[in-house]
Design brief:
two-stranded antiparallel sheet, 7 strands, Heat Shock Protein 90, alpha+beta
Length: 312
């Protein structure tokens, strides 16, 4: 809230000088309108000559038109910069996907070779891991671009949230074991089917669980709880690690944001995962949030709507 009132900070976010920033110019225009109204009112009281009042109105109107023109120009530059950025991300991301996919297939062919010695296999597996990270970053950038341009297409179907989470936990067991983390599933009875885009929801859950593993203290337990509500199914992913500060909490779902605890831990990440997860969950008709206390116990939760057939 305070950041929204800080005109200088908002202009800094837009990387525009103060006298060209729309927020500042709107504020200036508001002051001029107030002063103009007061000035005309005072003039009308002491000067009955209509020509003087008309000249004042014309002068104020002309000045406001000049400021309006500057504001429109500022907005046009912001819109043009946003469009250029969007096109740049789209072009670069698509250009990177093809070579990364080609590298992945060639690496997988090489890794299938039984004659490959262990040392060379270790090198290739490392290259493959970094290639997969790069491919994920490219896909995340494309997804963010679609979200910001309102072009994210979700294909909703009904599916079992329980089965999906069990699969995701199984896929992440090796990662958790390597980090000395245990994952415990708490499943309530009669969990309903949900109605959402299964592929995108799987990506969101994988990101939330991956973050929980990455930022957990060693030899702790991550709890994944699935429960039902009146018209939704709810998932709570709880871990124990560094607490999320109140300052970081206000920005946790913003794109490219990485908390101070993540920076101190030098953990990998682009700061896009939670932004995409929030966008996908809310576009599916659910909600998402988190709770973090001073002890480091943090719970990220989200809800998804129940399948319509079961709600009837």
């Amino acid at each position: 809230m305070l950041h929204e009132l800080n005109i200088k900070a908002q202009c800094g976010d837009l990387k525009m000088p103060l006298w060209e920033c729309p927020h500042f110019l709107f504020m200036v225009m508001g002051f001029i309108i107030i002063i103009a109204i007061l000035g005309i009112n005072i003039t009308a009281r002491f000067y009955t000559d209509p020509e003087i009042a008309a000249l004042i109105v014309i002068a104020v109107t002309g000045f406001l038109l000049i400021i309006s023109h500057i504001i429109i120009g500022a907005f046009e530059r912001v819109a043009e910069a946003s469009r250029a950025r969007s096109e740049f991300i789209s072009i670069i991301s698509h250009q990177l996907r093809n070579p990364l996919s080609s590298i992945r297939w060639q690496l997988e062919i090489l890794l299938r070779d039984p004659a490959l010695d262990q040392r060379m296999r270790s090198y290739l597996e490392g290259v493959n891991e970094y290639n997969n990270r790069m491919a994920k970053l490219v896909n995340d950038l494309l997804t963010v671009n679609r979200i910001e341009n309102n072009r994210l297409v979700l294909t909703s179907t009904q599916f079992s949230l329980v089965d999906l989470i069990k699969k995701i936990i199984k896929d992440n067991t090796f990662f958790a074991d390597a980090s000395h983390i245990a994952i415990q599933l708490e499943e309530k009875k009669n969990i309903p089917l949900v109605y959402a885009d299964e592929n995108h929801i799987q990506w969101a859950i994988e990101n939330l669980l991956g973050n929980a593993i990455r930022y957990s203290n060693p030899r702790t337990v991550i709890t994944v709880a699935i429960s039902k509500q009146a018209e939704h199914a709810r998932v709570d992913i709880t871990n124990r690690g560094a607490p999320i500060s109140s300052i970081d909490a206000a920005h946790i779902f913003k794109k490219f944001f990485r908390s101070k605890s993540a920076q101190r831990a030098r953990s990998d990440g682009s700061g896009l995962g939670l932004f995409i997860a929030k966008s996908v969950v809310e576009a599916s008709g659910g909600s998402i949030g988190f709770i973090s206390d001073h002890s480091g116990l943090t719970t990220f939760w989200f809800t998804l709507p129940r399948a319509k057939k079961q709600m009837q």
